[in-house]
Amino acid sequence: MKPVSLSESSLPAQIWNSALQLDNIPVISTQSLVPPGARAVVIAPHPGDEVVTCGGLLQLLSSMGHPLQLISVTDGSASQPGSQQWSEKRLSVFRSQESVEALRRLGLPMHSLKWIRGGFTDNTLAEHELELTRFIARYLRPADVVFSTWAADGTRDHDAVGRASAQAASVAGATFNEVPVWAWHWPARDRELIPWHRARKLRLDTWTVARKSHATHAYASQLDGEPAIGIAPLLPRILLERMRLPYEIVFV
Fold it and tell me: What Pfam families would the database entry show (predicted)?
């Protein structure tokens, strides 16, 4: 599978807003997902994925005093090849600034947050999966609870990071959870491809949802695209709409 295109984003019949199974996903508490005292590690393929995947969970864990570690696999500088407005050189500076602002909007403790930047290149992660696995494994501990993108999410980078993170967590003896991003925007006919038996729903209050949405909008370089030359927004309107749902879903 692959993410829906910008033109397809206007279609209502996507999994996230049509699948009846969503209503029946068991609810999980933050304490059950991440036991007291455990460190949570969020592995993001690109800057912004940590907010899109689990910006609500990050807020809840931070408020409970859990130690947090973020791993940004790429710096996002090669995310928009061919762009006239967002060259690789400009994004190499801008994307890191966007990430700092987004995490600040989430209310995370920037002075104590452990944040690792991998420096890998966008759109090449599948070709460097073994190296990526070894890189991630260096930063994991046996008692960690790890979150990363689902290995069948539908984009090469997300899938590669999901596989590498799962393998690294296995090597380290850490608990691993997957978070789908683009899979929710597959056509409704593909809903049976979702592993519903593994899905758990983490409820978010109104304030947590609002902060998550506000943080997502910090990624200004990802919001508009360049329609005149065929570059769609990397954070399309339909994804931003889904960010306002009062829950996040994790595959355990």
Answer: PIG-L (PF02585)
